[in-house]
Automatic annotation (TrEMBL):
Organism encoding this protein: Nocardioides furvisabuli
PANTHER family per UniProt: INTEGRASE_RECOMBINASE PROTEIN MJ0367-RELATED, PHAGE INTEGRASE-RELATED
Family indicated by similarity: Belongs to the 'phage' integrase family.
Boundaries of every Core-binding (CB) domain copy: 75-157
Entry annotated with the keyword DNA-binding: yes
UniProt cross-references to InterPro entries, sorted A to Z: CB, DNA_brk_join_enz, Integrase-like_cat_sf, Integrase_catalytic, Integrase_recombinase_N, Tyrosine_recombinase_XerCD
Sorted UniProt keywords: DNA recombination, DNA-binding
Superkingdom per UniProt: Bacteria
Ranges where the Tyr recombinase domain occurs: 178-390
PROSITE patterns according to UniProt: CB (PS51900), TYR_RECOMBINASE (PS51898)
Protein name per its UniProtKB record: Tyrosine-type recombinase/integrase
């Protein structure tokens, strides 16, 4: 007859023996989460203390998880981070750029404060004080730190290494008031002029600009697309034969750390995949780009480097910043064009139309972060309030 197996998480008889130095060793066999029986032992000055120490050790071991690494209340936070990063790799559900951002935020913002803490020491009060200190530096810094802390400690909770996720008990971060700023038509024209005239004067050495930056700006203004999405547009994504012409936004450019830049086959979110009807000024620059790549296959990028590889978003941002600094224009980034499009569309067609154009799941996001507030009240109020005008004396007698 088969002998019944010891259930996972239980232990057999405890063997107590006296060591040569007079201390007592308590020893037993414990069945771990992987089903294997392993010897576990502890010592103490007396038989009772040795048995108590062994049972405490077994209680902690009951929280262990196997596979990517063992986690228990006594595991260091640094060890948790290693397991968490491995877990992200195995799940393979987030973009490479997002994974790199999580790791950077964890190592630069959180690890200096908690690397040597054990998981049992990661209390609500400690994390709350830490996040408030980060918020004094900047809201963004505190928000990024809270996100990665929540994700990592959420994994520890799933591994039963902690009884609850302490991040969930911390105070809510308060976003400081901010106002989205759109570019005016005058500012847009000044930017166009600066880019069109950069390094095109006589007597300048080196290759002349190839005109791609000017075209990229017109595409951002005509599509509201993010810079990475614009750089990911392929020949096949542009249709200038229909009326109005269209551009399909269905990818983005990614530059992983230490790896070549490549085109990702989906944009930031599923809602961001969309087909946009474009204005004539955008259609014209895209026609010109299509002429340049007329002999290339449909998968070829509209914007590319001299080696026909994807342009990096950092290089485009750097070039734009250098040109505008030379022209004395500050505070403009590729995202400024996206906010400008959102504001223009809101004024003409409302926030829902702007959200649809930008690929947002909710117009609340668009209003909060992309549309410049309109302080002007609808002038129809003046006509309505005429009913409150003072009456003439003859009107009062009638």
């Amino acid at each position: 007859m088969a002998r019944p197996r010891t259930p996972i998480g239980t232990f057999g008889e405890i063997d107590l023996r006296t060591n040569p130095d007079g201390s007592v060793r308590a020893r037993t066999r414990f069945r771990d989460d992987d089903g294997q029986l392993r010897a576990v032992e502890a010592t103490g000055p007396t038989r009772k203390s040795a048995e108590r120490n062994l049972k405490e050790k077994l209680a902690r071991r009951g929280h262990y998880a196997t596979g990517m690494g063992e986690l228990s209340p006594d595991t260091t936070f640094a060890k948790l981070v290693e397991v968490w990063l491995e877990d992200i790799e195995l799940e393979d559900r987030i973009a490479v750029s997002t994974r790199e951002l999580y790791e950077r935020d964890m190592r630069t913002l959180v690890m200096p404060a908690f690397a040597h803490h054990t998981l049992r020491e990661m209390s609500i009060s400690k994390i709350d004080r830490f996040l408030k200190a980060q918020a004094k530096i900047s809201y963004s810094r505190a928000k990024h730190a809270k996100v990665v802390l929540n994700l990592a400690l959420g994994l520890a909770l799933r591994y039963e290494a902690i009884p609850r996720n302490p991040v969930l008990g911390t105070a809510r971060l308060r976003r400081p008031p901010s106002t989205a700023m759109a570019l005016t038509i005058t500012q847009v024209e000044a930017i166009r002029h600066a880019v069109q005239n950069w390094r095109r004067g006589s007597g300048l050495s080196g290759p002349k600009p190839d005109g791609q930056l000017e075209a990229i700006i017109e595409v951002m203004l005509g599509t509201s697309a993010r810079i990475g999405e614009v750089l990911a547009i392929r020949k096949r994504d542009v249709d200038v034969t229909c009326a109005p012409p269209t551009v399909r936004i269905c990818g983005t450019v990614i530059s992983p750390s230490g790896k070549p830049t490549y085109r990702q086959d989906h944009p930031k979110t599923s809602k961001s995949r969309r087909t946009i009807s474009i204005p004539t000024f955008t259609a014209e620059v895209l026609r010109q780009r299509l002429v340049v790549i007329a002999s290339e296959d449909p998968e070829h990028l509209v914007f590319f480097s001299r080696n026909h590889t994807p342009l990096t978003t950092n290089n485009v941002r750097r070039r734009l910043r250098a040109i505008l600094d030379d022209a004395g224009i500050g505070g403009v980034t590729p995202h400024s064009f996206r906010r400008t499009v959102a504001t223009v569309l809101d004024r003409a067609g409302g926030a829902d139309l702007a959200a649809e154009m930008l690929g947002h799941t909710s117009s609340d996001i668009t209003r909060a972060h992309y549309i410049e507030p309109d302080e002007r009240v609808n002038p129809v109020t003046a006509e309505i309030l005429e009913s409150l005008a003072p009456r003439r004396s003859e009107d009062r007698t009638n």
